Fold these 2 entries.
Entry 1:
Amino acid sequence: MRKLLPFMKKYMRYAILCPILMVLEVIADIAIPYLMSLIVDVGIANRDINYVIKIGSIMIFAALLGMTFGIISSYYGATAGFGFSAEIRKTVFKKVQSYSFSNLDKFSVSSLITRLTNDCNMLGQVAMMSLRMAVRAPFMMIFALIMALSINAPLASVFMIAIPVTVVLLGIIMVKARPIFIKMQSRVDRVNAIIQENLIGIRVVKSFNRQTHEENRFKERNDSLRDTALKAISTIMFLFPVLTIVTYATIIAVLWFGGKQVVSGSMGSGELVSFITYITQILMSLMMLSFFFMQLLRGSASAARIVEVLETDSEILEDVNPVTEIKNGSVSFNNVSFAYPLSAEKALKNINLEIKPGETIGIIGSTGSSKSTLVQLIPRLYDASEGSVSVGGVNVKKYNIKTLRDKVAFVLQKNVLFSGTIRENMKWGNENATDEQIINALKQSQAWEFVSKYNDTLDYKVEQGGDNFSGGQKQRLTIARALIKSPKIIILDDSTSAVDITTDAKIQRTFKEELEDITTIIIAQRISSIQHSDRILVMNEGEIVSIGSHEELMINSPIYNEIYESQQKGVVG
Ligand SMILES: Nc1ncnc2c1ncn2[C@@H]1O[C@H](COP(=O)(O)OP(=O)(O)OP(=O)(O)O)[C@@H](O)[C@H]1O
Ligand SMILES: [Mg+2]
């Protein structure tokens, strides 16, 4: 938690004022029972109405003052707490934005969402409580104890028994509850994880009719959360009754011994009443403190998870003196091997490949043959585990990352659009793109065909993820978005799989005729999408097994022939 303290900096003023005001509130709260005892023992005993009115007014004033301090303190506490969590959230969000693909693989998206939402909220609450409860309880205890001692020191010896007994009882309960609370936190995480996974993929769940399956999976986790929460609550359930018993026992003891003193005249009855109030205040503070520790416990789990995110740096590091210009669109792989972060197996083995500027390369191979993996190394979405990848004759690690990604446009296999308008989405490629440039790119990717039919063309609304477009429309829009970058290299990872064959052919033709200077790498399942490429790579189990033109491969690649045959059959049969 200490590592998160700097996030409080901006709200330091509130974080300092809140406990100070809290202490003032406590002083008022402590003064009231004392003033009351004066009213009873002095005012009423002497039938001095003026004294009663005077002290009574002071009492009301103290109560009002205490209330005001309390309200302002709460407000400052909330400001500091919410501000603190907002600062953390902002920084964590920024950090996550800087993450590389391999960082994301390690954390998983749903866990990052939980950290950004629940954990940040939790920390805000704990901060707020630390500023209030953690200050109020000890001060209350100390002041009340001092007051009790000053009223009647011998009688205050009951605390010698009451406080240790309470501390021990609270201690036992806390020790028992601690592991259950930690377990509960992890159960909450499991429920959150499944909720996020399901909502992100809700359409898939529905289309596969997996609702029942998912509901059962959810029920299992939800039930286990309920049971753990119940267990946690039943453990601390005893807290309150136990404390009440201790309080009453103490009160009885005080009434017994104090009562005798009142009868003998050595103690005022008002003093006895206020003494009892102080007992309650002390024991309540102990309870508050234990509740605070419980929250602190849950907060520390959240803090650990936030710190983990903050301390993880992007695995893609930029060179100290990065190259900011890419000479040409050539690509070379030198003895490249690659394994995914959490996987022991190599996804790419010993890749050697030279691509000339302006060349069109097709990549084909069965699913899972590492086609996507291969091309992801070019814009440094991942770094090669062994060997090196170069663009324009320079190792990709030497480039300024922004330059590299601007010049290597990558249309991801799992691509998304963002909520906003079509124009806004297109501007992701280039903030300064004019409508003319956008329309031109849309024409090149054959998207203008349908965009031009909308009444509000470029202002047409895109829903979250681009869910209001068909698969093929979405693909064409994402290709246009990549073209707007005016890249030197463009990579289309299965980007026309949902586009009909005629439109696909039109896109290929545009690339060949209008965009011939751009190095184009096309991954496809259909041979027709890559047939006219200058060269075609055939991949199998992480290796390039053949390279050549369509005609060459038809002669000497059995795998290529097999794919070709199966697709021909598909067409004929
Ligand atoms: N993020 C990841 N973490 C771990 N393993 C991964 C990851 N992405 C892919 N893999 C694994 O790497 C191998 C190659 O996957 P890749 O996505 O490159 O295949 P592909 O040829 O593009 O397949 P497809 O034609 O289905 O798109 C597969 O065995 C896959 O399980
Ligand atoms: Mg792929």
Note: The CA atoms of residues 361 and 521 lie 5 Å apart.
Entry 2:
Amino acid sequence: MPDIATISSIIGSVKAATDIARLLKDSNLSLEKAELKLKLADLVGALADTKLQIAEIQELLSKKDQRIFELEEAFQFKDTLIRSGDAYYDLNDSGKAVGQPYCMHCWETKHKAFHLHNEVGTTLNKVCPSCKTKYQAKQTQLLRVD
Ligand SMILES: [Zn+2]
């Protein structure tokens, strides 16, 4: 994954390309043709490296934007759930837990709210569709408004 070292590498590649371009400019075409071709090849190589490294940074920024979006979404949702038994629930107007249970594991580790489902073949357990954690149904019941 690209990081500060990649940015330092990009700066190094740009500096190398700049140095080569400066040398070519300052040479007043006094370089031999073979040497000129070699310097131009170095310049193209430095620019190609820079292009690849910038693409890595672009991908990293995109991933970071996605992660920031997920965290902002989780933060807005943060105070809307309350724990009861082994699950989290929506709050009613009185601040009481109500409705279908959400997975405690997913909420506490990833701030993602997934409703629990009945485990196939039994009414004793509920299971999270995302992390597959199982919960005792009696600890994760549907809570109705009184
Ligand atoms: Zn889960």
Note: The longest strand covers residues 97-103.
